[in-house]
Structure formats: structure tokens, C-alpha cells
């Protein structure tokens, strides 16, 4: 068995924070990274732009200075060495510009412009732009000499330092404002969640299932959450009330046979009796015990209908024939017989549940039917039980599908009122329909299953494809 991984220190710290703080912290980290990257981009772009502007100024100055170089050539042609090259007097650079003319070895031959702090020692010569000693320097080769133009970077550095401070301060301020706004937004967004949590805690503490979560306006996620939670609470409250009613009614129904059984036991034990009297008393109790057992089994079967359905392929005709055979004694005792009209029909259901549903429908037809014949008919994904007589009052049908409910005028007939309720619950479990039909001289109940793949793959009834039409014979005598 794999042992769960231990939480890291960061996970432990985050686990102690509220969801609001976690959302705010995550938002702050993302926003801070975004702002810092944006600030770095602004700083880099400003540095590039200002450096490019300074370089353009140095190129223009170098172009003017190159045109102002005086080479001092040997005009008389007497073979004497020419004087070192210099700038013409018209070259007057402004401001802090410095222009220098260097030999190939780096020795300064001439200067112009800002020369107060100019160094006299040779400089290494490198063509192009460089930054050295706090100055931006452009070096160009002119014949066998080098022209160097430079300008201090103090203004550029000062501007960039000021920009960096402004970006840092502004970023810190925006991050702080974003954290506050993020926490406020998280608080507003999670208020419905708090309401749901408080309502659930109140229901768990007080057991008041009538309480509901305040509905959030709109159609966003929180509105759907509160609406779904309220719907769930409505269903939960209805289920709990039905369970309470069922428990109260079941306790009442169980109390009656138990009270009768206890009375007979007390009567039997009131005084010493002969063995024959004890046997007679115990024999009378057997019927009560059997009724109590049937009631208990019906309650258990009804309670099991709430479990997830385990559907399988079930053949209705075979189960109907088996149930009809088991009800022969009941039919004979009522002076009736069962006629079968069966066609092969495979449906998706539960074998034991189908057997119980058919038995309940058939027993009701035998108990309350006004004719001497009960018809059990099976067709394509459908079962029908037909009995003579008007049947129950149509206005009372929905009430008869509730546990322990029985029709008017049947108090003298044995039963617990669970038969139709169990059949109805099983039908819902299989997504089938329980349909009553009233005719002039008969009443029937149809159990209609949804058409599915089970019907298409069912085997034929016999090698010739004929469906059986059976009638269980009426028995006389014992």
C-alpha cells in the first residue's frame, strides 16, 4: 500500500490560509511578475532609445568634425616634414562634446570642445561605439588617423536612475492597490460560498431542512451554485419528510400485529392450560406471524428500491409463467383461474424485482377482481394483468401508489397496502411506466418497459416462432 506523500512546508503554510488570502496571494504574485516585467521592458526601451539618440548626435558631430580636419601638407615641396594635422578654426563644438584626432598609436594630435579634463596619455583605439570613463565614445578611422567624438553619460544615467526609481515606486504602489482590490473581489465572489457553508452548518446543527441559501442574482457560476444547492436542499427535505412519514406509518402498521400477537400470548399464559389448548393458541398465532413476516419483507423490499439498480436481461414470459404457477393455490381458494397469453419479451430489469412486481399485481387482481378469471398477458416489453370488475376509483389511483394506502371498501381483505407502492417504486427504478386502464367490465394494469437492445436480441419462443398462449387449469378439491 502506497503511503501518502507528506505535505511540504509551503503546502503547510498555504493550508492554514483562507481561500480569500490564497486567491489574493496568487493574484498578487501574477500581477507583481507582470508589472515588474513591464517595468523592466520600459526601462530597457528607454535606455535603448536614449542611447540611440546620443549615438545619432555623436555621428552628426563626427561628420562635421571629419570635414574640419586640416592635414598640414608640405605645400612648398622642399622635402621638410609636414606639421601634425589639426582642426580648422571653424570647428567649435557646443556643450560637453569632445572631439579628438588621434594617431594610429593612440596619441592625441588635436582636440576641440570640452578639453578641461581630457587625459594626455595615449588611449586604446577601437572603432565604433564604446562607453568608458563615464562617456559615450564614437571612434572613426580617417585615412591613417582616428577621429574620436565623445560626450558624458551623466544626464543619461541620471534620467535612467530616476526612471528606475519611479518604476519601482509605481510598481510597489500598483501591487499594493492590486492586492487590496484582489482581496475585495475575492471577498465579494466568495460571499455566496460563505452563505452556503453557513446554511449547511445551520442545517447540520439545528436540523432545520426548510432553510435555504440566499439566491445570487444573475446567471454566473455563483448564481448556479446557490440555485443548485437550494434545489438539492428541496430534494433532501422532501426525501427526509417521506422517510419520516414512511417510518411513522411502518411503525404504526407493525404495532397492530405485534399488539395482537402479544395479547394472544398473554391470554395463553394467563393460566395453566392443557397441551391441546396451547397447540390451538400457537396455531392461531402462526397466521399473525406470517402476516408480520410478509409485512417486514415488503418493507425491506420497498427500502431496497432506493439502492442503485443492477439491470440485466430478463425474460418476462418465463417469469410470468413461474409466478402464475406459484399463485395457483391462491386462485383456487378464491374460486378463480389464471389465463396466460405470453409472447417472448426480453427487457432490461432485475429478475427478482420483476418476479415480485408480477406477484403483487396478480395477487391484487385475485383479491379484488369480480370475475372468475384473471388474464396475464406479456407482449413486446410489456406486461398486463387484467381482472374483472370496475377496479379502484380512478381519482384514488395516485394515493394507492403510496405505502400503506388501500382503497375504500377493502378493509375486510387481508393485506398491508404495500403491493402497488412496491410495484410503482420498482417501475421507477427500471424507468418503466405503471399504467392503469379502466374498461366497462374490467380493470387492468400495464407495466411498460422502455424499448432497448434486449428486445432485439431475444431468442424466439419456439423453433417455429409461435408464442405460447396458455391457460392454467382450474383445480377442484385438494
From TrEMBL:
Main location, first listed in the record: membrane
Keywords assigned by UniProt, alphabetized: Kinase, Membrane, Phosphoprotein, Transferase, Transmembrane, Transmembrane helix, Two-component regulatory system
InterPro entries listed in its UniProt record: HAMP_dom, HATPase_C_sf, HATPase_dom, His_kinase_dom, HisK_dim/P_dom, HisK_dim/P_sf, TCS_sensor_his_kinase
HAMP domain residues: 187-241
Location in the cell: Membrane
Top-level taxonomic group: Bacteria
Gene Ontology MF annotations: kinase activity
E.C. no: 2.7.13.3
Catalytic activity: ATP + protein L-histidine = ADP + protein N-phospho-L-histidine
TM region positions: 25-46, 166-186
Region (Disordered): 67-91, 455-478
Domain Histidine kinase, residue spans: 249-453
Residues making up the signal peptide according to the UniProt record: none
Stated name of the protein: histidine kinase
Species, as recorded: Deinococcus radiopugnans ATCC 19172
Taxonomic classification: Bacteria, Thermotogati, Deinococcota, Deinococci, Deinococcales
